Amino acid sequence: MATLDAAYIGWFSALAGDADPGNHRGSPGFDVDQFNESAVGERRGRSVDDTLDEGARLRRRLIAAIDRFSDARLDRTIRFGGDRKRPPVDLALGQFLAGWAGHDAIHVADMLKALPERRNAPEIAASLDRPDVALALSACQKAMGLSAAA
User: Fold this and answer.
1) Which three-class secondary structure state does DSSP give residue 62?
2) Which pLDDT score is estimated for 149?
3) 83: left (phi over 0), alpha (psi -120 to 50) or beta
């Protein structure tokens, strides 16, 4: 998630009105899968805690960009470039953000498969046990052809 937040910060900052830095999730021709594979490779060998700390720093920057979105911006159509599992699509930014939030939850669930000792951390348990998050997880898993236990 840390690697993808880096790709989204530039896009969300541009959508919020900053100069477009390019080479981000919203750039034409940007290949998110290629970006992610490269970014993961650069982080190989780091500790889990260092990676989670990086993710927390990047997420704060990402949220700061999202906080700048006006209602009018949330209603505007954006181009989601797709990836290996989803085709490109035009949709309202607010609609994209709602889906993206559910997508985040599925990655947290995936990480907990590798880090089961963190499942009961109060902030994680509280987040994943929320009915809206459980619903988002179920919907994402269903859309991706995964079972809840997968």
Assistant:
1) helix
2) 44
3) beta
